Amino acid sequence: MTTEVSTATQAQQAKSQHTLAPSGSMRARMEALIRQKQNEIVGAMEKIDGKQFFRDHWERPDGTGEGITAAIEDGNVIERGGALISVVHGKLPEAAVRKMRENHSSLRDKPDGDLPYWVCGLSMIMHPRNPMAPTVHLNYRYFETQNEDGSPQAWWFGGGADLTPYYLFEEDAKLFHKCLKNACDKYDPRYYPDFKAWCDKYFVNHHRGEARGIGGIFFDDLVDEDPEKVFSFVTACFNAFLESYPVILERRKDMPFTPEQKQWQLIRRGRYVEFNLLHDRGTQFGILAPGARIESILISLPLNVSWRYNFHPKEGSEEAKLVEVLKSPREWV
Amino acid sequence: MTTEVSTATQAQQAKSQHTLAPSGSMRARMEALIRQKQNEIVGAMEKIDGKQFFRDHWERPDGTGEGITAAIEDGNVIERGGALISVVHGKLPEAAVRKMRENHSSLRDKPDGDLPYWVCGLSMIMHPRNPMAPTVHLNYRYFETQNEDGSPQAWWFGGGADLTPYYLFEEDAKLFHKCLKNACDKYDPRYYPDFKAWCDKYFVNHHRGEARGIGGIFFDDLVDEDPEKVFSFVTACFNAFLESYPVILERRKDMPFTPEQKQWQLIRRGRYVEFNLLHDRGTQFGILAPGARIESILISLPLNVSWRYNFHPKEGSEEAKLVEVLKSPREWV
């Protein structure tokens, strides 16, 4: 456990910039939400695992950001996992703004030049020890660009959650998707089908022609005339995770398994690494950013991984059944 | 062990296109060289390991290429490794030619439009079981574009070899570099310093600010008024490997080691995976190519890998000594 301590002055500056957000602003509320949800998620996982997460608080030396990495390694139930929050601000260079405009319509009519931005988010991943228990990933974030007076200019929410089983238990897939669908349906009937399809399209190991897992939801650039609606939707998404994954983990964590089943899990974890390092834009963007916190970003990688040449499960086996589903994503609810 | 068999006609076409190369042509000679060196390397490794490599011969169904993947998993000495040859031809689309021109001067004055090409090469990687023994990588290839009558137009050689120890034995680093320098010096006194520097610049985990290993040589676009000279140099490079790595492996394969030292090896192997998937252009290009042989490309990844949060070796330890060298590459000969 380490803490990077900036100089007192820099830390002070950072603090004052954070608290500049009016107490009722979306920035302040989203920051409060991710702090609360980090605690809830870590609390739920610690309760199941029996071992405490360690917490690593960091601040950028120049006062432009801070975060908390809460992580676990060699837990009783979770082999490796982390729940990370970060709150970061700065100036986007003009070239980055131009690039961002392609995917974020609310940026399109903004002036050229460097643009002040503010972003906060929570990223989470859990790799359980038992191969019957699925790996899970979640990320929700709020992005804002600002006018000269610090008031919000363009903004959007992004994120999602997806499940990566090593053995397919349909009731788990259904519960995970059902909770997400319920969260979506309260706000917009198009959310679940759209965001489920987006997830199936994004989390793909293109070089292997198979999905990373059995999906969930994924969205970016989510805006609405009513920002409250989107904030409330994101809160519901967090809750959908808290209502489903701990239940799934409890169901699977003590199931018996063979060394061959553990080996299959390690091979599938290799696929997880391949996706994160070859295809995941978030990981690549994060890692290549100057001053990136590599260890926090790569907490997404499993503790143990294995590669085997041309390993194909036997026809009709449970392993083959999973691969079939990964090759053609299904509807679960 | 599998063999992909194309239809008889397609295979026949492929064969006839290969044998179109005049028997004394560079294509025919380089193909013969990589076949011979694959056998010599695999033979040398099998002799040390005591276990046979398996061989997986493949042909592209459309007759545009073939190769042999020779690999080993769970050997006595080598945990995972492969020596792959491939001989492939086709047409480069105009956009690819334009891109290639940036780095290959001999292409610059060639006509626009699709361009027939022919390439063959040998890629090799060995991950030994014992953490005192280094991982090694080698790749040499010959690329040629062709006129309408099949005669060579532009051509070049590329490749290199580099060593990735988990514990630093200076005598190993020196032997590896000395053999490469001897091979270089016979042809051009600038080769070794230039190609050693190129290697140090290329095999870098930029996101961690450290080299993958202790280097070797790396070159691309190598041409000369006298093609014989370059072919002879590449032959000498292969021999430099055969003169050094088997000696190093014999020295280290039976050394005692602790579970902690094995654990360190697994963590360092994570860095190897990070380089290959995040930074290596060859891997990324190979994987994203249509019809890529993923399992052959990813034979470069180790059998077992581990990620640990913020693992830093103790000051003054052997592990720390290695990291120091990776942070500032040294001259070895």
List the helices and strands and how they pair.
The structure is a homodimer of 333-residue chains.
Chain A: H1 8-19, H2 26-49, E1 54-59, E2 65-73, E3 78-92, H3 94-101, E4 115-128, E5 135-146, E6 152-164, H4 170-185, H5 191-202, E7 204-205, E8 210-211, E9 215-222, H6 227-252, H7 259-279, H8 281-288, H9 294-297, E10 304-306, H10 318-327
Antiparallel strand pairs in A: 1-2, 2-3, 3-4, 4-5, 5-6, 6-9, 7-8
Helix pairs in contact in A: 2-6, 4-6, 7-8
In short, what is this structure?
2 copies of one chain form a homodimer. With about 325 residues, chain A is α+β, with helices and mostly antiparallel strands.
Largest beta sheet of chain A, briefly? 7 strands, antiparallel
The chain pair with the largest interface is: A-B, 33 and 33 residues
Radius of gyration of chain A: 20 Å
Q: What are the secondary-structure elements of chain A, in order, as H or E?
A: HHEEEHEEEHHEEEHHHHEH
CATH class of chain A, anyone?
Alpha Beta
State the separation between the terminal residues of chain A, measured CA to CA: 42 Å
Q: Kindly report the oligomeric state of this protein.
A: homodimer
| Number of spatially distinct domains of chain A | 1
Helix proportion range of chain A:
40-55%
Task: Give a written overview of the molecule.
Two copies of one chain form a homodimer. The first copy, chain A, has ten helices and ten strands. With 333 residues, chain A is α+β, with helices and mostly antiparallel strands. Chain A has one domain (86-327): oxygen-dependent coproporphyrinogen oxidase (3-Layer(aba) Sandwich). In chain A, the strands form two sheets. Chain A has a seven-stranded antiparallel sheet with strand order 1-2-3-4-5-6-9. A two-stranded antiparallel ribbon of chain A has the order 7-8. The relative contact order of chain A is 0.13. Chain A binds chain B through residues 2, 56, 71, 73, 80, 82, 206-208, 266, 270, 273-274, 277-278, 284, 287-288, 292, 294-295, 298-299, 301-310, and chain B through 2, 56, 71, 73, 80, 82, 206-208, 266, 270, 273-274, 277-278, 284, 287-288, 292, 294-295, 298-299, 301-310. β10 (304-306) of chain A pairs antiparallel with β10 of chain B, so a sheet runs across the interface. Chains A, B: Homodimer. Chains A, B: Keywords: Heme biosynthesis, Oxidoreductase, Porphyrin biosynthesis. Chains A, B: InterPro entries: Coprogen_oxidase_aer, Coprogen_oxidase_aer_sf.
